Amino acid sequence: MTQSETEILARLRLINTEGIGPISFYRLLKTYHTATEAIKNLPPKFRPFSEHQAEHELKLAQSKNIKLIAFDDAAYPQKLLELEDAPPFIYVLGRTDILNHTASVAIVGARNASINGRKLASKIAYDLTNSDVLVISGMARGIDTAAHKGAMYALNQQGPTIAVLGTGADVVYPSENQAVYEQITEQGAVVSEFLLGTSAQSNNFPRRNRIVSALADATLVVEAGIHSGSLITARLALEQGRDVFAVPGSPVEARATGPNKLIREGAFLAENAEDILSNLNLCQHKKIKPLSRAAQEDLFAKPLDKVKNNVDIPQQPDNSKSELKVIDCLTTEGVYVDEIIRATGLDSATVSLELLELEMDGRIERQVGNKVALIKKAKKDAS
Question: Taking a C-beta distance cutoff of 8 angstroms, is the pair 183, 161 a contact?
Answer without folding.
Answer: no
